[in-house]
Amino acid sequence: MPQLHTGNSIPAIGFGCAGWGTGPDAAEDLFDKKFEAAYASGYRLYDCAEEYGPVENDIGRLTTPVREQVYLLTKCRDYRPGDTVATVLPRLQASVRRMCPGMEKPCVDLFLIHEPVIGPEGRVVMWEALVELQKLGETKDIGVSNFGLKHLLTLPAPKPVVNQVELHPWCQHREMVEYCNKNGIIMQCYAPNARNKHADNPVLQEISQSVNRSPTQVLLRWSIQHGYIPLPKSDHAERIKQNIEVFDFTLSEEQMERLDALGADGDHPVCKSYDDFCD
Q1: Which residues are marked as active site?
Q2: Rounded to whole angstroms, how far apart are CA atoms 244 and 108?
Q3: Residues 6+ apart with CB under 8 A from 209
Q4: Domains parsed from the chain with CATH numbers
Q5: Which reaction does this chain catalyze (predicted)?
Q6: Of 126, 131, 184, 198, which is most buried, counting CB atoms within 10 Å of its CB?
C-alpha cells in the first residue's frame, strides 16, 4: 500500500461514495447492496463527506463489524463567518461519531477540508481545527480536497498528507501535482475516468483494445502508475468489481506518454474548477 508522509499506509484505490445517499438510490437496501458489492470486490477505502447526506451514517453502520479492515475518509467544509477552532471542532467530531458509531474512542483514518471555497481565513481555521482533531486522536491523518497550488501555498503547517482533486489525462494539474510530489503530498483522484466523457477518444480506445481492458480500467491504471490514488464509483455491481481489477496489468511507457499527451492543451475538468473562483 502507498505510504503517507506521516508513515501511515493508505489503500492504493478507494470507492467514491458521493451520491450514494441521495436521489433514487437513497433507499437503505440499495445503499447496502452497493457497499456489499464494493467490499466483496476488495475495496477497503471509502470516500465520504458531511456534504453527501446520510453517507457518513450509512458507511459507519455498514463498516462497524469490519472496522479494522476498512479505511474511513471523510470531508467537511462547514465554516461559518466568525468561526474559531473551538466552534468548528465539535462539527468535525460529529462527523467522526457518525462514521464510528458505538466506538469508545471514535477515530477516522483521514479527514479532509472539502473545498477551498470557505476563503483564506476559513481555510486556516478549518485546518487548525483538523490539527486539533488529530491531536485528540480522532483522525489519524489530515488533508485537503479541491485545493489549487495557490491554496496549498498559503496553508499553515503541517503539510496535508493528500490533496483530492479531479485528475485524469484531460485534467492533469501539472504545476500543482509537481508541487505535491516534491512535498510528499499524495494525489487522490475523483472522476478518474472523466465521467466517461472521453470514452471514445481514439488514443484511449486503441490502448484499451491493445491491453484488452475497458477505457475506465486503462484510466485507473494510468492514475496508479503515476502514484495517484483513484476513487472510482459506480451503481452497478459488475462495474464496481471491474474497476478494482487494475492491478494485474501494466501500461507501457509509450502508452503512458500517449495518455499524458492528451492533456497537452491544458486542463479541461468535467467537474467545476475551484481555481477559477476561489481566492
Answers
A1: 52
A2: 23
A3: none
A4: 14-266 (3.20.20.100)
A5: xylitol + NAD(+) = D-xylose + NADH + H(+); xylitol + NADP(+) = D-xylose + NADPH + H(+)
A6: 126
Half-sphere exposure of residue 126: CA atoms within 13 angstroms, side-chain side: 28
DSSP SS3 for 16: strand
- The amino acid at 216: T
Q: What is the distance of C-alpha 219 from the center of its chain? A: 16
Q: Is 151 annotated as a binding residue?
A: no
Alpha-carbon span 258 to 249, nearest angstrom: 17
What secondary structure letter does DSSP report for 155? P
More confident residue, 274 or 74: 74
DSSP annotation of 111: E
All three cell numbers of 5? 508522509
CB 242 within 8 A of CB 217: yes
Taking the C-alpha atoms of residue 276 and residue 125, their distance in angstroms, rounded to an integer, is 22
What distance in Å separates the CA atoms of residue 192 and residue 76, rounded to the nearest whole number?
A: 21
